[in-house]
Amino acid sequence: MLALTDLRKRFFPDTPNERVALNGVSVTFRTGTFCIIIGSNGAGKSTLLNAIAGKFPLDGGSIAIDGEDITKDPPHRRARLVSRVFQDPMVGTAASMTVEENLLLAELRAAPHRLRWGLTETRRNAYREQLALLGLGLENRLGDRVETLSGGQRQAVSLIMAVMGEPKVLLLDEHTAALDPLTAERVMAATLRVVQERYLTTLMVTHNMQHAIDHGDMLLMMDAGRIHFAASGAEKTKLDIADLIARFRDKEDRILLAG
Amino acid sequence: MDILVRFYELVPVTLAQSLIYAFVAFGVMLPFRLLSFPDLTSEGSFPIGGCICGALIAVGFHPALAMLAGTLGGFLAGTATAMVSLKFRISSLLAGIIIVTMVYSVNLRIMGRSNIALFQFDNIFDLIYAGMNNTLSLKIAFLAILVVLLLILAHAFLRTEKGIAFRAVGANLDMAEAQGIHSWWHIVLGFGFAGGFCAFAGAMLVQSQGFSDVNIGFGVLINGLAAVIIGELITGRSSVLRQLLAPVIGAIVYFQIISVCLALGLAPTDLKFATGALVLLMLAAPKLLPRLRRGEDKDRIRETV
Question: Which residues of B touch A168 (CB under 8 A)?
């Protein structure tokens, strides 16, 4: 279970550039929830994921995973519980290192790094099996540097890495947005499979309204650092794209009225 | 002919010298390439190693103990740079300059004067094999063994779980932290070891040349950098082993180039300018080359850049 309580964050506080990024976000995700997060640019979606990953200290509020308060933990301590796939495949992998080295780092995310050989034959075989499931031919490229892979292949590696080391929470930040439609579908299919297999609590930010409708059992629409609209279970199933667009409109009308 | 003879006579001396400086080049490469943080501390860690070692030998310490203390001094200088840089969010270059400046005064304090003669004391070379310090072939063999040992240990380390995590910090800092790696420790220890290698070289040098001087560090960074860049030109950076070999091979080649320049009649006082120009040329080569070879094999050039 991931519990967010009254998260607050201002960037550039007390300057003319001050921006309220999170304005009291409280929401609880039951274990195994696949939650879609949508919202216009600057609504606070990525800030929310960054807050959970520990990229910056919060101004207020608390974050707990399975009852353990991680609000004050730096990113590397949270890594054993939280993993992430970014929009840019470059961000989530070490480009100048090989595929197998990247996978090893992911495998050891929650474990201490010891002074013993890293890439054993047992590990290589396990990695080969995992990569073969993707059907992208990556199982033959264990020893290649990640920078020699295509964007889609890199993102697939990022995804495999994110679910290794048994995290509790998976954060997906528009992770198919930079891919061509066919590769995006493949990565999305792989995502759904691993999320279901491992019963991971998953938060997926997307601008793709079709994805927002088709996938997930919970939906949050964010606006101005708050949760503007939430739906789960049967309510989420009933939603269609028109409903979501209307909710976006709704917000624009309010801005017009306020103006 | 005369020039050739002069150069030939210098080869062994230069080789011994370059094997000592290989440690400096290695210490320059480590933060620069493995951690992706440029570091200038070698300019301070190299002399602190020499000064501590020299001062301790002069008061009767065993050379091995003096070298260990010197190496530790360089290690501390390296960690100091990293900690200043990380704690106060100062660029690692500026942090290095600050530490180097402060270390200079520390070195003067340690030695009590600006140089100490060490001829009359036992040194590590003679203790290992009597007369080694005056027999160039033995000295070269001994230094070569040390360098090979360094390469084997470093290469083995970088293949362990800890070593792969260490490389991840340099390859992609954010990713490393997202994979649960505490980058702070890796950076501080990496800078520490880099400083230690430089200081070890300083301690070897003062014993090899028979005197310790506070100014031995002047220009050592540019020598190390030149060695790394020349080495990478030869070995490339396509594997960890090549990256580790680069500073060693580079140091050997670089000092022979310097030796040629001296044989050709370059005044020693102009050496720093020549080295600077060489490094500049190497760094500028990727920008200059495509223009020189316009239209010809452009893609290949871009790949090597």
Answer: none
